[in-house]
Amino acid sequence: MSLPTDELSLLIRDWYYAASEGRVDQFVSFFLQDRETIYYGTDPTEIWYGYDQIKSNFEENFRIYGKWTIMSKNLKIQQFEEVAIFSDEVELSARYEGSSIAEDARMTGTLIRRNNSWKIVQAHFSFGIPNKELLPG
What we know:
Layout (H helix, E strand, L loop, with lengths): L6 H14 L3 H5 L9 E3 L6 E3 L1 H15 L2 E5 L3 E5 L2 E14 L2 E16 L2 E10 L4 H4 L3
Parallel strand pairs: 1-7
Antiparallel strand pairs: 1-2, 3-5, 4-5, 5-6, 6-7
C-alpha cells in the first residue's frame, strides 16, 4: 500500500504521531485556537466545544490514559482552496493499567488554512457498531 505524502497527509500523520508519543501539547497544537473548534470523541461524553475545552480535556485524557497509537490505514483528503476534509480508517492501540485494545476506528475532520498554516477545526473519532447491535430484533 502506498501512502500519500502531500502536505496535508503528512500533517494528519504527524497529529497521530503526537498521540503515540504522548505529546499532549503538540497534539493539541494541531487544532485551531478558536471557540468554534469542535471535537467529537469515542465516548458519548466527549463533545468538546472550543479550543480551551478541547485542550483541557485532552490534557486530562493524556494524564489518565497516557499515549495511544493511531495507525492510518486509508487516509483520504480533499482540498477546496483554504478548506480541506479528511477521512481515515485507523487502528487504535492503547493500554490502560492491565488492559489493552487494538480496534478499528474511524477518523474524520475539517481543516482550514489560516496564516499559511493548516489547523483542525472539527474532528470526529468513532468506532463502528454493526447495525444488528443497534436495531432491535
